[in-house]
Amino acid sequence: ADYLKWAASKNFVSMLPEDTKRRRVEAASSTQRSLDNHLVPRDQVPHYSESAFREVRSKSFFHTPSLTRHYQPIHILQNPIFQQMINLASRANHSIKIPTLKQTRQSIIDLFKSKLRELRE
């Protein structure tokens, strides 16, 4: 007990086994916790490539809402395929090549034919 009083009066850190163990426990409890339990995984958006953009663009034609009296052009912003296309395009390092109408038509026909072949197999 005299040693502890002396150590406290001289601002000396006690090296007794009980004191070192207590300091280790206090240090372990005061350290920052891991953030792993608090982080939520997000959907991974692939990096931009011409083929990925072409695929998403082709999908957007099939998922566009039909024209009804309640349809407004601004509703396209709520379309998940359109949002995916914009997210993909935002990751482009260079300019994006928007295909011509003829190229788009051909890619849709090719996609249709490939899906038809898959169904036959």
DSSP helical segment count: 5
Task: Decide which structural class fits the backbone.
Answer: mainly alpha
Ends apart, CA distance between termini: 86 Å
Poorly predicted regions are none
Percent range for helical residues?
40-55%
List keywords for this structure.
121 residues; mainly alpha; 5 helices; rod-shaped
Task: Describe the overall structure.
54% of the residues lie in helices and 0% in strands. It is rod-shaped. With 121 residues, the chain is mainly α. Helix 3 runs antiparallel to helix 4. The mean pLDDT is 78.
What's this, in brief?
With 121 residues, the chain is mainly α. The chain has helices at 2-9, 17-30, 50-62, 80-89, 101-120.
Write the layout of secondary structure elements.
Blueprint: H1 2-9, H2 17-30, H3 50-62, H4 80-89, H5 101-120
